[in-house]
Amino acid sequence: MAQAAAEVEELPRTIVRRVVKDKISRVSDEAEISVKKDALLAFSEGARIFIHYLSATANDICKDSKRQTINADDVLKAIEEIEFPEFIGSLRASLDAFRRKNAVKKAGAAKTKEAKKKRKMENKPPVQNGDSLHEEVDVGEGNEDE
Length: 146
Fold this sequence. Notes:
Layout: H1 2-9, H2 13-27, H3 37-64, H4 72-81, H5 88-123
């Protein structure tokens, strides 16, 4: 039973392998780096523990602020608190790039939604008398009560 719980929390091996090989290849002159299965397991377990520790620290910061949702600033503060300040610069840059990318997507989605709405209104057939609940009233005619 305990083994099944550990397997659920395990990080995806293919992603761990890809990240490890990418990072090692950037600092090594060798063309192809081979990483043994037990080394990948160690990387995966280390990353999982780091994520849990960082999450717990960010959660504590969030609770101290009397909020229930962890935000990016909580994570950045947690990284400082667990003494990894050298990551802050690159993480902040990645976060800013992510936010800019999402802002562009949202702006594009809003324009697309507005354009669809406009096309729908332009393609809507004109309402003829008797086709709607409200009929046109000619205000130029006199009132019978006068």
